[in-house]
């Protein structure tokens, strides 16, 4: 996995990612054993380790490490922590203003954020073509291997005439995906079903496995099956097969409706990205300008640390890693300081939540008991392992309550933050990030359509599996108008 694509600042700068992160936190802390065991068992159906640039260890070793992490996390869930039922462990049990002093101008924060542009016809068509490609079924063909084909292969890698660890297996390889080292996929073009070829290749000098870096090897590859992707024709029948609905809940059944649906999706994604950018900048200013007082309850600090640790263990498990390795590879920690780094991350999250709670107290944004009760009921309905609301524990109840609070405060902040267009230099610097976000959003749209079809084709990551960037959806809104500001000032006075 190319962990360099997931930077700490990227995670922290996206409000949507933070919300997803908190939901995963809930899964890790409440679902515990079930969530971890499912992830540990959900390994690729393919065998062997592909000779790819990012492979660090055999799948079996990774799975074993994941299982060990799962056992540790599951045990932590089974043992009720000391803070679990103590009021001052949670936002609802404290008076936030006792621990933080908000800046005087928090009601009218000013940030820079470029307003989103409307989707163009070209962008809509590009998104549709990507969707068609992603929904293309595989069909076995009786011909030689061509670029873009999916081939099922058996391969055996040898170094100095001896098989090397992780160099053999069975794999479904897309020719041209650059999943394997240079020359491997190209060497199979023109092969027939049942044909065996010896590929004389060289591992890259910077290959992750030091014993193979820069070494000459021979891969003996047998082609078992050749399949090609049959890109569907864009017509009303194809659109109906997607089983998608628009924002009004109406079925999308024609090509014209589908174009409108795609255009709406792109615009919503950009509005959501804009909202996230505005809120991230506003929250950063809030945290920088707020003054924290001494005496934040130790129980609350422990609760956030415990929750952060479990959430990170969950992420580590998803990527077949140990917690320590996740912290070192993703957050640039060291073996000596990774636990302290987790504590620092937890404390930062705790302080931000205390700020949100203080704003909620001042602006009357705390969720009502009825809202919390409804959220708990919805949670119970979605969880097969929980029969009735009374079975939901204190931590889960508080989490659901805090999630409602965050939404209320985020909505309020977004309406009151004054967003200005950034300078040309800053806009150019941000352009690359927007492009990456929209690319990930394209993948997300295709995935949603696949889920609606209920006929998705199971696939597995290659050994170089790149971490997909998350793209989010959120409520849209606008910065405060002059009238709203005046009304606020009158209210404050």
Write the SSE topology.
Elements: H1 8-12, H2 15-31, H3 33-41, E1 47-48, H4 59-78, E2 100-101, E3 110-112, H5 121-134, E4 138-140, E5 150-159, E6 162-174, E7 196-202, E8 216-229, H6 236-242, H7 255-289, E9 291-292, H8 298-318, H9 323-331, H10 338-363, H11 369-382, H12 394-416, E10 418-420, H13 424-453, H14 482-492
Parallel strand pairs: 3-10
Antiparallel strand pairs: 1-6, 2-9, 4-8, 5-6, 5-8, 7-8
Helix pairs in contact: 2-8, 2-12, 3-4, 4-8, 5-7, 5-13, 7-13, 8-9, 8-10, 10-12, 11-12
For this entry, give a set of tags:
493 residues; alpha+beta; Chitinase A, domain 3; 2 domains; six-stranded antiparallel sheet; two-stranded antiparallel sheet; 49% helix; globular; disordered N terminus; disordered C terminus
Secondary structure: helix percent:
40-55%
Radius of gyration: 26 Å
Gross geometry: globular
What number of structural domains do the residues give?
Answer: 2
Class computed from helices, strands and strand pairing: alpha+beta
The end-to-end distance, rounded to whole angstroms, is 55 Å
How many distinct beta strands?
10
- Report the β-strand fraction as a percent range: 5-15%
Put simply, the count of helices is 14
> Averaged pLDDT, please?
78
Give an overview in words.
The chain has about 500 residues and is of the alpha+beta class. Helix content is about 50%, strand content about 10%. The protein is built from 14 helices and ten strands. Strands 1, 4, 5, 6, 7 and 8 form a six-stranded antiparallel beta sheet that branches. A two-stranded antiparallel sheet has the order 2-9. A two-stranded parallel sheet has the order 3-10. Strand 5 and strand 6 form a beta hairpin. Helix 2 runs antiparallel to helix 12 (about 395-415) and helix 8 (about 300-320) packs across helix 10 (about 340-365). The protein is globular and about 75 Å long.
């Amino acid at each position: 996995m190319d962990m360099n694509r997931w930077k700490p600042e990227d995670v922290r700068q996206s409000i949507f990612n933070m919300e997803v992160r908190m939901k995963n936190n809930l899964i890790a802390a409440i679902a515990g054993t079930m969530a971890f065991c499912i992830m540990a068992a959900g390994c690729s159906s393919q065998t062997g380790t592909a000779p790819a640039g990012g492979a660090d260890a055999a799948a079996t070793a990774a799975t074993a490490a994941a299982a060990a992490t799962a056992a540790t996390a599951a045990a932590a869930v089974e043992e009720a922590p000391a803070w679990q039922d103590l009021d001052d462990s949670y936002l609802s049990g404290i008076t936030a203003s006792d621990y933080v002093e908000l800046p005087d101008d928090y009601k009218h924060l000013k940030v820079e954020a470029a307003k989103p542009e409307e989707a163009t016809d070209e962008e809509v068509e590009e998104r549709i073509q990507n969707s068609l490609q992603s929904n293309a079924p595989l069909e076995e063909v009786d011909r030689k291997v061509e670029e873009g084909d999916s081939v099922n292969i058996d391969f055996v890698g040898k170094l100095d005439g001896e098989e090397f660890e992780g160099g053999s297996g069975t794999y479904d390889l897309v020719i041209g995906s650059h999943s394997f080292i240079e020359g491997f996929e190209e060497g199979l073009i023109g092969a027939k079903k049942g044909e065996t070829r010896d590929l004389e290749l060289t591992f890259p000098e910077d290959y992750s496995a030091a014993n193979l870096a820069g070494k000459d090897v021979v891969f003996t590859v047998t082609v078992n099956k050749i399949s090609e992707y049959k890109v569907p024709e864009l017509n009303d029948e194809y659109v109906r097969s997607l089983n998608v609905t628009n924002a009004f809940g109406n079925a999308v059944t024609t090509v014209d409706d589908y174009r409108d649906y795609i255009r709406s999706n792109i615009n919503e994604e950009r509005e959501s990205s804009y909202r996230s950018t505005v809120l991230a900048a506003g929250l950063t200013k809030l945290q920088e300008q707020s003054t924290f007082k001494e005496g934040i309850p130790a129980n609350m600090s422990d609760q956030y640390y415990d929750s952060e640790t479990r959430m990170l263990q969950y992420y580590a498990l998803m990527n077949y890693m140990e917690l320590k390795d996740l912290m070192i590879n993703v957050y640039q920690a060291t073996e000596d300081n990774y636990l302290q780094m987790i504590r620092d991350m937890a404390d930062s999250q705790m302080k931000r939540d205390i700020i949100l709670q203080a704003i909620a107290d001042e602006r009357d944004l705390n969720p009502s008991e009825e809202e919390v009760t409804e959220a708990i009921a919805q949670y119970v309905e979605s969880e097969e392992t929980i029969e009735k609301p009374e079975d939901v524990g204190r931590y889960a109840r508080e989490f659901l309550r805090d999630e409602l609070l965050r939404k209320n405060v985020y909505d309020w902040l977004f309406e009151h933050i004054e967003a200005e267009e950034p300078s040309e230099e800053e806009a150019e610097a941000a352009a690359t990030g927007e492009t990456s976000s929209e690319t990930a959003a394209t993948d997300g749209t295709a995935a949603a359509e696949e889920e609606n079809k209920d006929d998705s084709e199971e696939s597995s990551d290659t050994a170089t599996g790149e971490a997909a960037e998350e793209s989010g959806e959120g409520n849209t809104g606008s910065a405060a108008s002059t009238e709203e500001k005046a009304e606020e000032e009158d209210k404050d006075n």
